[in-house]
Amino acid sequence: MTIKFSVFIATSMDGYIARKNGDLDWLPGSDGTRGEEDFGYTAFFQSIDTLVMGRNTYALASSFSEWPYHGKKVWVLSSAYPHSGTPLAHEAKGLACAPLELGLLLEQNGAQHVYVDGGKTIQSFLRAELIQELTLTRIPVLIGEGIPLFGQLAGDIKLRHLATQVFSNGFVQSKYALEYKASKKKNK
To answer: How far apart, in whole angstroms, are the C-alpha atoms of residue 154 and residue 135?
Structure first.
């Protein structure tokens, strides 16, 4: 597969992407507003042509005062959608399929760099060994419990450190390349 799949996400220091109820009140900018610093998000967003997200992430993005993904193709994965695709708001398409199947569909549709977002979606793409790059921003807050970024895996996935940046507000952002075991099928 020639597509690059990337994750750009923030977690609390204890590894959660949201509270158990999906709330992001602990995360600055979670209401769709932007502060002075964007932590590299604009450059990352300009590098992608397609987004893949789960239903809950789509619902959150749809609640913002302005749709944050103008100009990008958006695919929403959920078992609630038929395989033929269901039109959603903002020209997003809903689909129920495995990550590899979606990757092949995206490749046929000309996608080159895909942003994968949402906890369950990221976890399923990791298990399928499709994620090639992970940018993780750790927010200096402990929320105690919530929705974890990472879930169970069939085996270890080695991360090769590419860069780390510390911001004046205490955010620490690290970028990694994912290195899957050579014995497993590569999807690069």
So the answer is: 22
Place of tokens 């610093």: 37
Tokens linked to 130: 């499709």
Return d(Cα 93, Cα 119) in angstroms, integer. 19
Is residue 138 scored above 90 in pLDDT?
yes
**For 96, phi and psi rounded to 5 degrees?**
-115, 105
Number of H helices, E strands in the chain: 4, 11
**Cα 111 from chain centroid?**
16
Per-residue pLDDT of 2-33, as tens digits, reads 999 999 999 999 999 999 998 888 987 654 55
Give the up-direction half-sphere exposure of residue 55: CA atoms within 13 A in the CB hemisphere.
8
Please give the backbone phi and psi of residue 15, each rounded to the nearest 5 degrees, phi first.
Answer: 90, 15
What pTM did the predictor assign? 0.88
